[in-house]
């Protein structure tokens, strides 16, 4: 096993050195190994993990110059069974005039692997569409890009779930533009996209009273109740809603005991019945750092229209929390990163951004936890924990 990375926040130039995909032991925690995934791009963000047919662990994310720009594309890297290094990044999308973001992988019941992602012109999330590509060889290669449904302004972030009668459930959220001005996030609401014909057609089912609740993340139910967790545009608390019919309809989201900074969370049901969730335990009341909007650095972008979404609350530290009551409370906590999480800029090229964000988490067949997340918007960091 190679020498571990330093047990501290890496400097920008060090991050570049360690982006070789090599698995390294943690300098202090004996049950932890980690790696920086290889990427040719200066900005890397929004990871999602998936076990492929054959056992390889795949990670997809988007990379380019800066979120929202037209050179943002989807990439994939794989960790083969028994390997000690993640593979070189492969570009999966290449629309020259659109920003392609928030990829997820889904292994369908018939073994077909789907890549699903958003595609938008510049910073206009309200004009995005959902695209997909399919793989017939277990995620090694993908066919032509196609549009998923006829939705405009619906974003995705979390993986597909299977419903009680085999329905495909793709969580999404509507990016709603105010009457005057540009999209800012303050009017966004949650929606579940449901397919009853294996992805051929999709129906949008609204989540009631979900203003500001986005990145809907359902996990398998317990005792007939299926919980979903949400990022909160108003940077108060992680939201939770419940479904009593296997994910087809949902109750209104309500706040949990975990703070949220208007950044993504992801949760998974463990084999012992607990829920494990990765998040930034920070909200707006804990920081006065603010920025105008997500895309305020793009050329020609102003402060946008009306809306009360809160941007700029630090995206750090990064924590792993556990619940034994179906997500009602999360009393157990483990720290993954402890830096300041500065995110008043998306600039990773000059080492200005220091966020830890957009986590993905899976439990492997052997019980280990696999976690991937944005490291300073410069790299995707992978962590494997042998104890959960």
TrEMBL record:
Entries under SUPFAM superfamilies matching the protein: Sialidases
InterPro entries tied to this protein: Sialidase, Sialidase_sf
Keywords, in A-Z order: Hydrolase
Boundaries of every Sialidase domain copy: 55-371
Gene Ontology molecular functions: hydrolase activity
UniProt-recorded name of the protein: Glycosyl hydrolase
């Amino acid at each position: 096993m190679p020498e571990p990375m330093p047990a501290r926040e890496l400097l920008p130039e060090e991050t570049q050195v360690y982006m070789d995909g090599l698995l390294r032991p943690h300098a202090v925690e004996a049950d932890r190994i980690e790696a920086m995934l290889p990427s040719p791009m200066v900005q890397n963000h929004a990871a999602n993990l998936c076990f492929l047919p054959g056992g390889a662990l795949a990670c997809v994310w988007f990379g380019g110059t800066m979120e929202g720009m037209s050179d943002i594309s989807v990439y994939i890297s794989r960790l083969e069974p028994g390997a000690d290094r993640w593979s070189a990044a492969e570009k999966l999308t290449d629309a020259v005039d659109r920003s392609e973001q928030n990829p997820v992988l889904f292994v369908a019941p018939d073994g077909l692997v789907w890549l699903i992602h958003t595609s938008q012109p510049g910073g206009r999330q309200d004009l995005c569409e959902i695209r997909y590509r399919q793989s017939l060889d277990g995620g090694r290669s993908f066919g032509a890009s196609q549009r998923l449904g006829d939705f405009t302004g619906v974003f995705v972030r979390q993986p597909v779930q299977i419903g009680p009668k085999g329905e495909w459930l793709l969580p999404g959220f509507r990016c709603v533009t105010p009457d005057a001005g540009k999209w800012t996030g303050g009017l966004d609401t949650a929606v579940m996209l449901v397919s009853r014909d294996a992805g051929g057609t999709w129906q949008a089912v609204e989540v009631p009273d979900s203003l500001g609740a986005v990145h809907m993340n359902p996990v398998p139910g317990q005792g007939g109740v299926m919980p979903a967790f949400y990022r909160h545009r108003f940077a108060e608390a992680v939201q939770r809603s419940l479904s009593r019919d296997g994910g087809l309809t949902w109750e209104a989201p309500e706040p949990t005991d975990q703070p949220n900074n208007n950044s993504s969370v992801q949760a998974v049901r463990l084999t012992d019945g607990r829920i494990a969730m990765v998040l930034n335990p920070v909200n707006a009341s804990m920081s006065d750092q603010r920025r105008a909007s997500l895309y305020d650095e793009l050329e020609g972008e102003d402060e946008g229209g009306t809306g009360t979404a809160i941007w700029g609350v630090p995206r750090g530290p990064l924590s792993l929390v556990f619940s034994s009551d179906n997500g009602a409370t999360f009393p157990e906590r483990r720290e993954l990163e402890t830096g300041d999480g500065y995110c008043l800029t998306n600039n990773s090229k000059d080492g200005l951004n220091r966020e830890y964000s957009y986590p993905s988490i899976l439990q492997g067949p052997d019980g280990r936890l696999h976690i991937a997340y944005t490291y300073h918007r410069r790299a995707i960091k992978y962590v494997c924990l042998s104890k959960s």
